[in-house]
Structure formats: C-alpha cells, structure tokens
Amino acid sequence: MVGPVPFQLEGDILSVLDQRHLPHRVIYRKARNAFDVARLIRKMVVRGAPMIAIVSAYGLYLQALRNRRNLRKGWEALKNSRPTAVNLHNVLREVFPLVESNVPAKDLLEFARTVENRERRINEAIGRWGVSLFERPLRVLTYCNTGMWATIYPGTALGIIRFAHRKKLVRHVYVPETSPYMQGSRLTAYEMQLEGISYSVIPDNHIPFVMERGMVDIAIVGADRITSDNYVFNKIGTLSVALAAKRFGIPFVVAAPSTTFQNAPYSSDIPIEKRDDVPREDYLYYAFDITPPDLIYAIVSEEGIRKVTSPDL
Ligand code: MRU
Predict the structure, then answer these.
(1) Which of 26, 47, 68, 105 has the least CB density, counted as fewest CB within 10 Å?
(2) How sure is the predictor about 235, in pLDDT bands with cuts at 50, 70 and 90?
(3) Residue where a domain stops, chosen among 122, 156, 172
(4) This model's pTM is above 0.85
(5) Distances in Å between the alpha carbon of 226 and those of 160, 233, 269, 297?
C-alpha cells in the first residue's frame, strides 16, 4: 500500500496533503497561486526539504497562469517561507531566469514536472546506493520523516530503509517521536505500517539508551542542508542522535539528494528557523540543529556513498 499522495495538480489548482493531520485524517488544502503555496509551507501543511521545493515550483506555475504580474512577488513569498532547508532556495535560484523572462506558464509547468521527476529518480538512486550499507539484516534508527511526503516516493533515508526491507535486510526500525511536530510518530510510523516494516516508536529521550542497550546497528537520517565542508543541518534532535551514535560506536549516516547541498562551507549566519507556534510563551522551539562532520560516518546521495569519517566500528 502506498498511502495518500503528497499533492495533486488538478487543472489550475494544486491540492496539497495537510501533513499536520496524518495519520488520522486525510485532508487536502487547495492552492491557487504562489502565495497560497507559501502560506501552506509556513504553516507546516506541507513540509520536508525536497517537498517544499517541489510544491513551490508548482506554485510558480499557478501564479504565472493566474496573475503573471505578481510572479516575482510570488517567488519572493516562497523564498521567505522557510529559510533553513536549502532545496527550496536552490530550486528558486534555478527557476529565476524563467520568472524574470516572459515565458509562457506552460514552461513553468514543465520546470515543476522536471523538478519532481528529478527528485524521484534521485531518491531511487539513493535507495539503491544505501542498500549496500546493509551487509546483513540490521536494526536501524532513523529520525524525523524522510519519506514520500517529505521528499517524494520512495524517500531519502526512509527510501533506503524501504529498499533494504524489500531485500529482507531490515530487522527493526526505531522511530523517535521527533518532538514538537511528531513527524516520527505520526508520519514515519505510518509509512512503516504502509510498507509492513517492523518498527517501534520511541520518545526522543530514549535514543542514547536504546543505543547503549545494543539495540541499534546503524542510524540513518535525512538532511535539510549540507554545506560543502559536510556540516549537516537537519531536524532538531539529529545532533543528539549523532552524538549518541558516536559514543556507542554506531555508524551515523546521512541520506540526501544533491539538491540539499549548498555550494559553500558552514557559516554561523546560516538561518536556523525558530517556530513561533509554541504552546506557551516560555517555550523555545528551534526547528533544526547542526551536526559537524566528525560525527558523520557517511553521506549517501544519488552519486554514491561518500565516507566522511572512519569511526572505530
Ligand atoms: O520541519 P520539517 O518537518 O520540514 O523538517 C524537515 C525534515 O523533513 C527533516 O529535517 C528531514 O530529516 C529532512 S528533509 C527530508
């Protein structure tokens, strides 16, 4: 079973799956232009680094179809929707010449389809490469959600797990809840069910303990931005996974498409989102943290597996 599609273009309307309600309810929100798409991204209706880039490309098509004069403004609204994940900004840079020239709307539709299909092919390649990390059936710990709603089917880190499972190389998957939005317990757990993979949801504070107990063989996570010197920006809590993995001699692997790479080294002025939809005024919610290269065993992209460090395993 595959599960609800992340979005669907129906004529001049983009129906976007409201991921905030999964797995309990399947609701689609309608976007009619780039501003609608930007709002859905800001509100976390649609999330996941590659997915927000894909739906943004469709948003620009709708904008060109309806009101071309506001195309540049729509592009800016999308640019301001979420600053940390770099896929969105890479795609917006790529499409900029089309936004600035007077191309017909159908060219923007073609661009959006190209972006979507490219990501799908990339994820399939990541899955195929990633399976080679499984020399025997392994117990995996993943983090957040990197599957069909965050990226595009089959997913990045989750795509590797999916492909390895089909080869009977996954013994069990530990799925941290991923507070505060619970992308793990709501989305990854749901994808595990749909795929028939054996899994347990764990509270985030169990991560070091399950590793200490010898219950995890490999940690595989996604990324929202990878710098040219291999600093990985990913969902807040990823750094705890990497630190614990290092402590207990478990390989920590990052899976991401090349569209998640930024062509520049780490710098402290890269924006880290803070969410303002906190339950109480005294809460502080960062959306991402940064894992330094010395904690990373390897990075898997469509180009292959690049060893970052060689920990004593
Ligand atoms: O804030 P989100 O849910 O958009 O977070 C982005 C992510 O989905 C994760 O950080 C993920 O691990 C990388 S994107 C596939």
Answers:
(1) 26
(2) very high
(3) 122
(4) yes
(5) 18, 6, 14, 14
Q: Are 300 and 126 in contact (CB under 8 A)?
A: yes
pLDDT bracket for residue 276 (50, 70, 90): confident
Q: Which of 36, 204, 217, 224 is catalytic?
A: 224
- Pair 116, 147 in one domain: no
Tokens representing 101 are: 């020239």
Whose C-alpha lies nearest to ligand 1, atom 6? 48
pLDDT confidence tier of residue 278, bands split at 50, 70 and 90: confident
**Chain length of the chain:** 313
Q: Residue 99 Cα, ligand 1 centroid: separation in angstroms?
A: 27
Rounded Cα gap, residues 301 and 291, in angstroms: 17
Residues with C-beta less than 6 Å from any ligand 1 atom? 47-49, 144-146, 150-151, 156, 183, 221-224, 234-235, 287
Does the active-site annotation cover 224?
A: yes
Q: At what angle do helices 105-131 and 49-66 cross, to 10 degrees?
A: 170
